[in-house]
Fold:
Amino acid sequence: MKILVIEDEKELCDSIVKYLKQEGYVVETAKDFYSAQEKVGIYDYDCLIVDISLPGGSGLDIIKKIKKSDKPAGIIIISAKNSLDDKIEGLDIGADDYIPKPFHLSELNARLKSLFRRKNFEGKKEIVLNEIVLIPELNKVTINKKELDLTKKEYDLLMYFATNKNRVLTKDAIAEHLWGDNIDGADSLDFVYQHVKNLRKKIMEKGGKDYIKTVYSMGYKFCID
Amino acid sequence: MKLLNKTGIYTILGSALVFVLGGFIFYNFLNMEINTELAEKLYQEKYKIESQLQKLDSLPALILEPSDPVQFEEVEANEFKTEFKFVDTLIYDKYEDENVPSRQIRFYAKAKAKIYYVIISKSLLESEDLVDVITKALAILFVIFLFFIYLLNRFVSKKIWSPFFVNLNKIKEFDLSALKPLQLENSDINEFKQLNQVILNMTSKMQGDYKSLKEFSENASHEIQTPLAIIKSKLELLIQSESLKEDQMQAIQSVYDAANRLSRLNQALILLSKIENHQFEKREQINFSELIKKHISNFSELIEAKEIKLKQSVQNNVILTINPILADILISNLITNAIKHNAEKGEIEIKLLADSFLISNTGEDLKANPLELFERFKKENTGSESLGLGLSIVKKIIESEKLLIEYSYQKPNHIIQIKF
Structure:
């Protein structure tokens, strides 16, 4: 999987690159409009992560260009402007997703994976975590071939773990992933705890292993080899 | 009290005084004139009688009534005096059956052989009637005057004050955040012209200040986004490290929590200023019932986890013309609010009717003024981690979408009702 990150803020760009490289992607960067245009013109990428406001031009123009060229790249917009217009216009001209800054890297990763799944880039329809198998098309989970009955939120939570396996997921990132960024305050963190507890219980009842580890009070990690 | 009423009252009081004083003077002058006239008439009668008597030996014996204007009495010759006197007295009038105030001239008159004592009377009733007439006339005049003043005031208020009232209404409706300049009606009256000028200067100054303040806070918010994004992403990378000790992790967590809080705060402020800037003007017909059901199911597990009992009655297919994003935030904020501030094992009631939406939750009595809860950064519990912006966002949305919101507390329920 080859990804191009178009982001002018060096530090943020580095963080994204580092996180995605750990996921095993090939990541390249472009720090301004012209180098981005150049790279998009020469190389093929599976996905573009595009900031809208760039030195030298708008990220929207790059999206338009790649859409015209018939290259099958997925596009995720990241925009600090948090502007609705950007979002609407971006999705209108063919972007696949939009994440307002600031965002959790784990959220970006989850969206990226979900995009790849939808585009069927990785060629598999199931996510296999040892005995646990997620079938996103059917929103179904099985453990040792037996179906696991999960609520919507529990399914989303497991999916979030699956796309960020062996990563520390902060409670905050989980809360935002499950309920959107309207959720505010300490209460939501307790709810995350409740959900993780329930999910863990359900998995273990069906004979699954306890993969979810608590990382101090910071968050959780789905540990799997 | 209206300015016109006030000046009207002073005009009426002043003119009433003038009318009373004028009446008094008028009466005195007239009275004086009448008295002189009366005296002259009595003199004339006296002269007539004297000159007639000089030609006669004696007067014919007449039966005189006490009310007759001329009375005679024969007296001894030695009683004759040349002096005469005026006397005011009451004379009984047989026909009218009342005492009539009269003025008399009393004198002695010589006939050829005899001396008579003569009394000539004239009724004073005329002058008494005069007071009556004057009072009545003045009263009528006064009423006419009042009516005139009333008409004048109406005219003045319509003609002269109308630009003033028009402008007053415009100033009342003036919205600082709308950033539309105030348009005032011109007047040819100098005072009003000056007033308009002063108000226009003031409002444009206010708008300028408001605009730059707003731009500043907006820019600040946007500029804060990027460093925040960097802090968060670096922290997220840092916690992936396997070699961190617990105390290091705790320190990182504190920083991470603070950064998240700042980030949420910033986003809420940006949202508020966007609503204020009318960046959510696009309205669509949305199915409010479905929206509410969606949010209830989104939060249902949260509600269960907190052991809150949810009572809901959502009428189907309630269609509203509203900005979809704002509608989403509105409902989500209200439901989160009801969950967050609920009592242990409390209750939430959600009711949607064709013309109103009601959400109530159990909770402790408010210590603060309920209206303050809708202000920014007001929260019941200052120690809580809540931002204190949720309800002010709700209020801004309500204002922007021109809905009505009501808060009431019926122990133990906090009730928020929105009317469409």
Notes: Residues 2-119 of chain A form a domain with the Rossmann fold fold (CATH 3.40.50.2300). The first strand of chain A starts at residue 2 and ends at 6. Chain A has two domains: 2-119, 127-222. The first helix of chain A runs from residue 10 to 22.
